[in-house]
Design a protein that fits this description.
zinc; alpha+beta; 4-stranded antiparallel sheet; EC 3.4.24.-; metal-binding; Membrane-bound Lytic Murein Transglycosylase D, Chain A; 20% strand; M48 family metalloprotease; Protein Transport Mog1p, Chain A
């Protein structure tokens, strides 16, 4: 029996856990309708969010998600017409979903691929609508815990205390953008309240309400797998890699709220409708293969240091480890590398702090003209080193790493700095995207033989099990639909 199924079949005592002040009965049955002000706020933020999160997907899979999302959103009472809600599938490889005032609801394509049925899709989208119905964004802003609807906090570089200095805020903002995270982070009590509202919407729409618990369990399992594959010690997402508190801690509460109810899941319909969805990195945004990042359009590649892991975003790729954090990104280039490096430092320092490197040195890396500098900064809670290492790819195009470490720790990134290279047209052409493929179990198929078809060189079995909410001891039945990740379509 899979871990997720075991959680769903837990003892009655476990399922009867109290919800600590977030019981469904304490949540208002109807929500105040979307106001004109909220609609305007959402409409203004919508194009910015689409741009930051890789744009909106189009095609039959996106249309299907939109239909399910509108059907569940209308249960909230925020609006009576399904057309009042804009539901978007974002072209992002991050497992995330959110909603903003005005009826705008979002899920990444990656999170959709993790789901097992239509009820789970409705649960995720219903949860996000619950945040809007409960006016959580407004409540968080009123407490001054975020500055704006798209507010990006500092203090995201875990393990390095940056305080409220200009450098901390600037690098913090950049890291949030690079990880595609510009939405609010909610408290645990608000997450539980949104879970409860989402379960109410599932019931009203006729879906199996236990889907809220099972999709949270899937997300927790994926987080744990990502941690193992990336060499992290804990199974939680880093603070900057999720807008939601750890889903594993919310599974039992969600299952408890849903006990005794029933409804449809529409599993086979869901799997058929998401067949072919892009999985993982989009080559147009660059791809991560093990410790290597390769961007076929920018024609570059580099290798992260041993013990570090990467997160790909629309505007930057982040490199993370215990001894420091880095990003690869770009800025306007006027043909002079020294001026480019100096300008990056100045931008990182911001208005509050003048940030200049001690020196800017020139070098060549794999045939690429390069320049770099280091500045030691007092963050208010201790000193840190900031490094900018830039490469010229043409007269009007340059890229750079921006790095922050404890004093003297920049040497950990030297192998990465020296690995930057220009790739050939043939190497760029060999970067083929991964897609989701829905397969039907045939006679002779086993979990192991199907897992061997996963388009990865590591963790094939683990990836297959988590993707399908299965345990290694489960038995497949002929005719059962399962998800695979394959190269190309």
């Amino acid at each position: 029996m899979s871990t997720i199924k075991a959680l769903a079949a837990s003892s009655t005592a476990a399922l009867a856990l109290a919800l600590s002040g977030c019981a469904t009965a304490n949540i208002p049955g109807a929500s105040a309708p979307i106001t004109q002000s909220e609609a305007q706020t959402g409409a203004e933020a919508h194009p910015q969010l689409l741009a930051e999160f890789g744009g909106a997907m189009t095609g039959p899979q996106a249309q299907y998600v939109q239909q399910v999302g509108q059907n569940i959103a209308v249960q909230s009472g925020l609006a009576n017409a399904r057309e009042s809600f804009t539901v978007s599938v974002l072209n992002s490889p991050v497992n995330n979903a959110f909603a903003i005032p005005g009826g705008f609801v979002y899920t990444t394509r990656q999170l959709v691929t993790l789901m097992d049925n239509e009820a789970e899709l409705a649960a995720v989208l219903g949860h996000e609508v619950g945040h809007v119905a409960a006016r959580h964004s407004q409540r968080r802003q009123a407490r001054s815990q975020q500055n704006t609807l798209l507010g990006a906090g500092a203090a995201i570089l875990s393990g390095i205390l940056l305080g409220n200095s200009g450098i901390g805020q600037q690098i913090g903002q950049a890291a949030l953008q690079g990880s595609q995270l510009l939405t609010l982070r909610f408290s645990r009590s608000q997450e539980l309240e949104a879970d409860a509202l989402g379960i109410r919407y599932l019931n009203q729409a006729g879906y199996d309400p236990t889907a809220m618990g099972t999709v949270l369990a899937s997300l927790a399992a994926q987080n744990a797998l990502d941690a193992r594959l990336q060499g992290r010690d804990d199974a939680r997402l880093p603070e900057w890699a999720s807008t939601h508190p750890d889903p594993a801690s919310r599974v039992q509460e969600a299952l408890s709220m849903a006990q005794g109810a029933s409804g449809v899941t529409n599993r086979d319909t869901f799997l058929t409708r998401i067949d072919g969805l892009l999985y993982g990195d989009d080559p147009e945004q660059g791809v991560i293969e093990g410790r290597q990042f390769i961007h076929p359009d920018m024609r570059l590649a580099f290798t992260a240091p041993q013990g570090f892991y990467m997160i790909n975003g629309t505007r930057a790729v982040s490199i993370n480890g215990q001894s420091g954090k880095a990003q690869l990104t770009l800025a306007p280039y006027g043909g002079n590398l020294e001026n480019y490096v100096a300008k990056v430092f100045a931008d990182l320092g911001g208005a509050q702090q003048q940030l200049r490197p001690q020196t800017i040195q020139r070098t060549t890396v794999n045939g690429l003209p390069a320049a770099y500098g280091t500045a030691r900064v007092n963050s208010g809670q201790g000193e840190v080193d900031v490094v900018v290492f830039a490469y010229e790819f043409s007269n009007d195009r340059a890229y750079h790493f921006q790095v922050i470490t404890q004093p003297g720790g920049a040497s950990a990134f030297t192998p990465m700095f020296n690995s930057m290279r220009r790739i050939s047209a043939a190497e760029a052409a060999n970067v083929v995207p991964r897609h989701l493929e829905i397969a039907t179990v045939r006679s002779g198929d086993t979990i192991r033989t199907l897992a061997n078809r996963m388009a990865y060189t590591d963790g094939q079995l683990e990836r297959f099990l988590v993707l399908n909410s299965l345990d290694a001891n489960d038995t497949l039945r002929i005719g059962q639909k399962v998800k695979l990740v394959v190269r190309g379509r």
